[in-house]
Design goal:
about 35% strand, about 100 residues, globular
Length: about 100
């Protein structure tokens, strides 16, 4: 399992949610490092046929442990639009400002 290679699994939470008729499965991994007060949280989405077009826009991000494929800012906007909470709307506004800076 990729997650086991990247994280010391402290907890694995599986969420199955329905947002606007699109099934989204999210797996949350949390790593607690003894030298850091903040846990590292990684949300992994299962790419379903409904989300495939979003995953196709993914980008590679470098971090301390190598390369990691992540959803693009535009893809994240689309995902957050599916849920549409107040926090998601704030996040969308921030993501659009980042895209406009590029």
């Amino acid at each position: 399992m990729l997650a086991a290679a990247l994280f010391t699994l402290v907890g694995l939470v599986t969420l199955l949610k329905q947002f606007k008729d699109v099934a989204i499965q999210i797996y949350r991994l949390t790593e607690i490092h003894p030298e850091s007060p903040d846990p590292l949280v990684l949300d992994m989405l299962l790419v379903t046929p409904e989300l495939d077009h979003i995953w196709e826009t993914r980008e590679e991000v470098s971090w301390a442990r190598g390369e990691l494929p992540v959803v693009s800012p535009q893809g994240l906007i689309e995902l957050k639009s599916l849920r549409g909470s107040g926090q998601d709307q704030d996040d969308i506004k921030h993501l659009r400002s980042l895209i406009d800076e590029e």
